[in-house]
Amino acid sequence: MPDQIPLYIDGEFKQSNTNDWIEVTNPATNAVIAKAPVTLDSEMAEAIASAKLMFQCWKEVPTPERARLMLKYQHLLKEHHDELATLLSSETGKNLADAKGDVWRGIEVVEQAANISSLMMGETVENVASDIDSYSLIQPLGVCCGITPFNFPAMIPLWMFPMAIAAGNTFILKPSEQVPLTAMRLAELFEQAGAPKGVLQIVHGGKEQVDYLLSHPDIRTISFVGSVPVAQYIYQTGTHHFKRVQAFAGAKNHMVVMPDANKAQVINNLVGSSVGAAGQRCMAISVAVLVGDAKAIIPELKVAMAKVKPGSPDNAEAAYGPLISPQAKQRVLRLIEEGKQQGATCELDGSQCEVDGFPGGNWLAPTLFSGVTTEMSIYQQEIFGPVLVCLEVETLDDAIALVNNNPYGNGTSIFTACGAAARKYQHQIQVGQVGINVPIPVPLPFFSFTGWRGSFYGDLHAYGKQAVRFYTETKTVTARWFDEDIPDGPNMTIHLR
């Protein structure tokens, strides 16, 4: 029988009493590798109560001590980096290179959490009025919650709970029911680093468990990453219950290619950024906007994409792994077929992909469309597969208008040798993360992950300074002391303890 994944409540890994279990499968074979519990309401309540009780102690722990916990944690994560990547690849299907990158980007956020002392500093103004000073204090909120997706089971949980806990909060994590194993190992290492019981809790399940978290009065914040419909639901429901919410949603990331761009760099980066991780990442480049004569690269782009092959995680020659589930594969196949029916030219069709030795896997080979228009479903919808669509425009202004008219605003890139074109693009484009001759402009953790428009619902973003503001509240103190109350002379009394 597959292993039954435990809950992590009040510092203990305990089996759920549920009779309802969710199968966890290996996407390369679709074999069941574990079962995750659908957490009972009583167990959800226990986790929240433990987190609430622990918050009263944890918020009083000195900030440097909380930072030292994160220093120990990042050391353990680095020590177990390859082990975590192997585990992660077994439940996501990612090849080891992608899995290692997933873990490493999470470690970078934990390193930033170790810098929490300087990030928790308030501000002071002396003499805002006669003999009156004002200063602000940054204080934690309470019990925070994270709901994470399947595609980055190490990185995205590590975006959330280390920053929240370092800031003095306690945290409840509900990982994707498709990939719960990595989260449990992260918790084991966190405990090993010295995290006190109750600081982190992990529960499992589906929509009912999410709704429980969204509506519970003791949870102060909700952090979410996932699809557009679910992000909208999370944001609307969470704010309806008066919670602070950050909900990262879908994307349709464009790479604008100018005629003067380095052709070899453009092709290499388009291939890697569109099909890497099987296209299952919110920062994947899924649209190439070819300006003027840049459309001439399509034949060479097709040749380069055709050389890229998916394969099992242990195949060092495989460029990427399978899609997460048969349902995900069927959705991408449907969109590919719609692209053909709606008049796009399918330059390269990966629909009939097979991988030797893994007949049951959710495989798709790279797929390339040209002649795409903005009315087609392959342009309008986030495909979340190894599919690249090409649109052609005449000018940079046309490209900017096209990108700005798209409802999403997660990431975009421009490839050009012209500094003025790059400057104009970065200034006028209405997208949160911009790359210049960089295909996937994910910021390092001392900045923040800043999706805009339909890619994000909320006000404060993940990691960096914005995350600290999201997980804390500001208290302003105005103080006045009177000179005549200063003790001096022979009547001064000194109390020594």
UniProtKB/TrEMBL annotation:
Highest taxon of the lineage: Bacteria
Domain Aldehyde dehydrogenase: 15-477
Signal peptide coordinates: none
GO molecular function, one term: methylmalonate-semialdehyde dehydrogenase (acylating, NAD) activity
SUPFAM superfamilies: ALDH-like (SSF53720)
Record Pfam families: Aldedh
UniProt keyword annotations, A-Z: NAD, Oxidoreductase
InterPro entries: Ald_DH/histidinol_DH (IPR016161), Ald_DH_C (IPR016163), Ald_DH_CS_CYS (IPR016160), Ald_DH_N (IPR016162), Aldehyde_DH_dom (IPR015590), MeMal-semiAld_DH (IPR010061)
Gene Ontology terms: biological process: L-valine catabolic process; thymine catabolic process
EC numbers for this chain: 1.2.1.27
Class of enzymatic activity (EC top level): oxidoreductase
UniProt similarity note: Belongs to the aldehyde dehydrogenase family.
Name the record gives this protein: methylmalonate-semialdehyde dehydrogenase (CoA acylating)
Source organism: Photobacterium sanctipauli
